[in-house]
Request: fold
Amino acid sequence: MKHFLPAFIALFICVPSQESRAQSPGGVPSPQAWFRAVPTGNFLTGSYRWKDLAGDSIRLVSRSKKNLSKTGAASQPFSLTHSFNFHPALYFPTRDSLAEFTLNYTSLPAGTIVGVFAPTMKSVSTDATLYEVSGRKGEGRAVNKDQVHHIQSGDALDYGKETGEDLLQGNAEQESRESFIARLPRTVSYLWGNRPTHSVWGEATRTVITLGITHAKSDSRFSESFADALMGGNELEGYIPELVVFSRMLTPSERLRVESSLALRHGITLKGSYLDGKGNLIWDAAHNAPYHHRVTGIIRDDGNALAQFLSTTSYEESPRYSIDKNGDSFYEGSPYNLSSSQRLLVLGREYGSKMQDEGYLLWGDDGKPTQLNTLPEDSLWHLSGRTWLAQTNFKEEADTSQVRWHSQDFTITRKGFTDHLVRKGDGASASIISAPLISEDGSLEFICPTKFPSFEIHGKEMFPLKELLLTIVTQVVLAKRMIKQLHGNSHHQSRTLVLQRERNMS
Reply:
């Protein structure tokens, strides 16, 4: 298939195929539901919804508080969302409705739920419900910002009593309000197990999980309800970017793999170490203890559905709090912009830099002040008092084993990820920066002088594009998920055209 500018010259790209891997959070298989916030359409400033990445079979629905039989798709306008480490999060409460989803084939006698939660600035000292699990009769549970409540016995588990690692400021933690707010959002993991049922009649196989509030007492679908006093009657005021549900208790290693995946995606610093999707240690908290502050990184892990090519910490200190409405990771809160000035350090991968599967670059700092100091021997240099430690498995050598471009009109010289083109006859030159469009990663960038002629792009193994969606970063012209024309963009006496493959899981 051909994608073209008005024809003058032709370039061909050869890309080897790669076998895709099944994807799951932290590489842990078979989640019942795996929700992330995604746009409902093609515009990043339109409406947003939760998408179930575990097969897209579970839907988050909105149920009217005034008329419980009235339901609809749960989505919200972009203005209510917030981004953490360049990923969107939905806002709760959902105004006049309840947000819930139903698992139709399990009562969750045992399970694990791992989520990312970020209370708003004004609600960090107010208790509220994170979610309610209503499955097996008499075994309902409500997880709030400080405790887990059992619906039948009324017993409560204070999961932050000793360490203060909960979402309620002013309870057990021995830190200031400013320090507490700086360490939001956080991952919250809840695991439980009950005795199996041995009744010949079996049991109902349905579970309803309600977000940010417990179900209404008037809801006839439930035979039991929580007392409002347990939660103080408060709904969650905050953001939830991601939530994963398993129908079994995960092992400690599996749980840490899921938590590591969510933490790296959303810029969260865990108390302990980080594992990749195969359980390999990629950040040792004990060994790197002096630098275990604001840990984050860029990573590609296809089996983990983790492609974090641009990263910053969500644990910025005062006054750059990430949960503040002005603390969005994008400049002016727009996903079409670059990173916000509220972020002290942002690192990312350039388009032309290939990043192999399971490759990572993680970093953390020593927690010292960031004030700039002048070196006594040279007043032109100003250094921060804070230092960072970076840890990576990236290879230094460039990938030069493949022939990428062929042309009858140019002499092409390859160096790393850049191909230099010199036109025969008049010597006009241009360059192409390309990372192979394999798996779910890669891009092409053409940098041409304004006097440069138009050209055709022909593909071999990367085309046809019926199963491959490319986005033109400059001047997008898309029709039926296929590129019809490619236009250059005049800028600083040159034309740049960027093609980037869209990832299935984003």
Observations:
- The chain has a mean pLDDT of 79.
